[in-house]
Amino acid sequence: MDGRRNFLKTAFATCSLLAGSKLLTACTPIKKVATDEETFETFATPDALKGMPIKATFLDEISWDIPHQNWGTKEWDQDFKAMKKMGINTVVLIRAGLGKWIASPFQCLLGKEDVYYPPVDLVEMFLTLADKYNMAFYFGMYDSGKYWQEGLFQKEIDLNMALIDEVWKKYGHHKSFQGWYLSQEISRRTKNMSKIYAEVGKHAKAVSGNLSTMVSPYIHGVKTDQVMAGDKALSVKEHEEEWDEILNNVNGAVDIMAFQDGQVDYHELYDYLVINKKLADKYNMKCWTNIESFDRDMPIRFLPIKWEKLLLKLDAARRAGMENAITFEFSHFMSPNSAYLQAGHLYERYCEHFIL
Amino acid sequence: MDGRRNFLKTAFATCSLLAGSKLLTACTPIKKVATDEETFETFATPDALKGMPIKATFLDEISWDIPHQNWGTKEWDQDFKAMKKMGINTVVLIRAGLGKWIASPFQCLLGKEDVYYPPVDLVEMFLTLADKYNMAFYFGMYDSGKYWQEGLFQKEIDLNMALIDEVWKKYGHHKSFQGWYLSQEISRRTKNMSKIYAEVGKHAKAVSGNLSTMVSPYIHGVKTDQVMAGDKALSVKEHEEEWDEILNNVNGAVDIMAFQDGQVDYHELYDYLVINKKLADKYNMKCWTNIESFDRDMPIRFLPIKWEKLLLKLDAARRAGMENAITFEFSHFMSPNSAYLQAGHLYERYCEHFIL
Amino acid sequence: MDGRRNFLKTAFATCSLLAGSKLLTACTPIKKVATDEETFETFATPDALKGMPIKATFLDEISWDIPHQNWGTKEWDQDFKAMKKMGINTVVLIRAGLGKWIASPFQCLLGKEDVYYPPVDLVEMFLTLADKYNMAFYFGMYDSGKYWQEGLFQKEIDLNMALIDEVWKKYGHHKSFQGWYLSQEISRRTKNMSKIYAEVGKHAKAVSGNLSTMVSPYIHGVKTDQVMAGDKALSVKEHEEEWDEILNNVNGAVDIMAFQDGQVDYHELYDYLVINKKLADKYNMKCWTNIESFDRDMPIRFLPIKWEKLLLKLDAARRAGMENAITFEFSHFMSPNSAYLQAGHLYERYCEHFIL
């Protein structure tokens, strides 16, 4: 109890001490958080950034570079509950498979491709949980990891066409099945991949009664592996020109464009987002931001991002008029259930900021 | 309670929905796990792999590349309890020392080599715990880290001869002291080291009334540092020829051969394991698999492996007729007590699968 | 209860078993730790090193390479409590800012430099907590990250001169404000930076009624990035000569010299520490050791250090006559609240050893 009185006393003392300074024109109300035993001042600064809320997350179970948490249904159930509490209403399966690893026993892949038989039907599990928590689920496509080269595109398209048919027939009855995610992450170097987007996206919409389709490309910026290895980053103007061409190719096949926000530096982000919004408007797409909740600036690749960095990016997204924010991804990097305990504290900071 | 009813309802619905499909010829029983409050369906797939159980683990306290957990006796006691619950009956000290670091105040090393005086007698502690939990303990040899070059082998042999004498005299009274581990991890590049195996192994057996000796070499495969740096991986046939020669050198000195299973790709593993079994049979050895429970495929080197990958490897081992499985290693990568919380979830998935 | 009896029995058995051996001249008392339910022997070795206690820690919130924990005031309050319990009486803000990131809304930086507006006033928070827990707080300077080159030094000096004035005016009333930390980490390669030390240090002392100033340089040893990249490590003699010159340059501006202890190998440390003490004595400084509590020897850069290594370094520091030990840093690497759970166990080993 002594602790609490100390803090309150300090809070008021600070307030009167600074009352005449340039820093505060009026006495800023002191933000506080309560625990069972004590009340703590947050020491929030008077002009702290606002940001915009995150309403969606990827589900990264068939992972490229993020170690697995080995959760079963019980743990996933708890995590969906935590998402919901934070305001998340949409979950997006990052991909149905990558190379030999697949999320569910898809017959069309087990028969044709050299894939491992999976122990769990993740798609059924995620849909069941999304139904339970009243969320929207987007199904991410299969990424062969090998048919990206010119001349092999058609194979990647054919596999996904068959997969869409099988998946919609088997899982389409779930009320939460509300969209498709075109999982191939393209950039300027792989722009011919946009043909995959177009064909696959149109087919997915056609079989499912026009459900929404999403893409999440990345900017060829200073934090891409290519640029870190010596390549030149794309200027804002070059970015606009290249993507104008790419988006023209996929017109009518993509409803939501959610650029990844981590490949450019924090102070550069706003300018790129403004262009993304302009392009989305031109092609009649919704413009989301894919806000990365992991930290690209540390030698451990990757742990949860610092709250200050997340807030900076959420504020740039707000100012640039993004229509929604999806994070990559909640369960490792923002969840109170994450094996990375920094994630749970990021969740607390986020909830504290948005007063959840 | 609502949650549970939802899940059960979904489970039966799924069952009847699919009853006529090719996917299920009969209605597969739904696997469930119970918690205090709810029952959760596991969403196990109908043809999920079986695998074989893990009955042994290394103890990696004098570590090469795995950060320490800083456990005292209390934490180790809890961990032995968790091992026992999972079915582990054998613990193997990975090494008595590595370079300047040693596991216990061995007089024969403190006197002759430039080693640090250790704060804890780990060998006494591990033997005491193995006694308590009715496990077998294997003592791993000292690895100087510097006498591996041609011409210096004899020094490594002499040090370990003296160590065996001292250790058997001091710790041999423990009922759990049941074997020796020849800790030098050899591969084709270091096959002359097999001389160490032979001499040291024979001496250890001689002083201890013929206790078992174990080795755990590695395959010169695609995930070794050497091959990742440009060297050519060994084919299955080359692997067989080279190891036929090496095993001939150590005939009579080694009772258990437990190849590490992480240096080859998942789909290659079975073929190598079949050869290992054939070779073990030829030289009258027991053939175990050393199943790595850490993930070699991620940028963080290393965190716990994905359950699906572990199960794939355990199933390849089962099909190839391995006689036992030892993991590297329980306490960091599979334990509910691990600092890596993914490990605790791997433990849960393992126990769930083997219905423990 | 059975467990406890077992352990005690073993303890006495071991004692009588060894009573006549060379290992123990008298029967060493068995060290034990108690939990709620059981008593555990520690298996401490008879001649275990002593070490010296750690009384200070850095606060690494504006971090260079350590991922953030995303703590709020509540979590920091708990952490100061844990520090206090371990005997820490001094906290040192590692830096007021680094490049665009700053710890508090410093007007002199927000106006002139391209910095981000911070969400929290960390300086006010840390001072409030240091007041509450009766600790001393040292304020670390701003590091621009870009004015280190010859010819730009004056800019770094000017920024810090203005910062000192602002900070002392705004925060100087706190009873815990008791010193300054000159945060630029220099070594032989950057020795011209000592001009910054001298000018900034003198100004800080002048405005604050001669509060203490601290530096924490590093030895150009085998574990620096430079030497690992091919550069030659500095011998003990070269180290002495170069630092004699540097310290001569900063005479009168620095009160405490706390060399980082992690860039040399464990067996080399003592010799360097002896020289550091000699140099500190010559220039009338206090000689502390900056004991790194993270592990530089592992592929994950960085997790908490092994207790044995920490103890080795604390013992070298004790023998070399260090006057105090500050760690980099408590909250990530030694704290029971750390996201790295190995840190909590390091805390337990430390407290057990020093019987806290």
From TrEMBL, chains A, B, C:
Domain DUF4434, first and last residues per copy: 54-340
Record-given protein name: DUF4434 domain-containing protein
Species the sequence originates in: Bacteroides faecis
